Amino acid sequence: MTSSSEFSTYPARISDADRDRALTALRDGVAEGRLSQDTYIRRMELALVARRPDELAVLTADLRSEGRWSRVVLGGVAAASGFPGRLRRAWQGERLPKLLLPGHTATSPLRIGRDPGNGLRLNHETVSRVHAELSRQSGLWVLRDLGSTNGTSVNGRRVVGAAVVRDGDHIGFGNVTYRLTAS
User: Fold this and answer.
1) Which fold has domain 98-182?
2) Which of 66, 103, 171, 175 maximizes the CB count within 10 A of its CB?
3) Which DSSP string corresponds to 82-142?
4) Bigger pLDDT: 82 or 10?
């Protein structure tokens, strides 16, 4: 006879990797149209509080998993489809006008927009009057969109709120794009 201390009465804990796999399967399911946005959110919340592997299995049971070959092919297609955009940005990178970052001693934010009172005035119809702000915070440069109509972007991605920028980044204000440079 064995004692109760030899066998665990608690089910195995869910590892972070198991939870991540379940969340990835749910995200892929909504991206492929197999789950609605509401179902995805509900299942994601359940996956985050799940305590046992069987709870996660139930959440992804109706989502067929791709085989290894399918994942390789689809991953290759995804990488190839993003290549033209990366190539275009690389080609244009050296041709973009440079925007010199303010000196490291800059204390006040640099306002960017069409308004003559801005520190950097951009006279283009897609740039808002007060479009964005560039400031130094904790040794990092931060670009903040100030509610512009046509958006602010960093390396082709729209800025929502604020984003850290570095030397060499491509920043856009509406349809006007620059390459940041420290010198």
Assistant:
1) Tumour Suppressor Smad4 (2.60.200)
2) 171
3) HHHHHHHHHHHHTTSPEEEPPPTT--S-EEEESSTTSSEE---TTS-TT-EEEEEETTEEE
4) 82
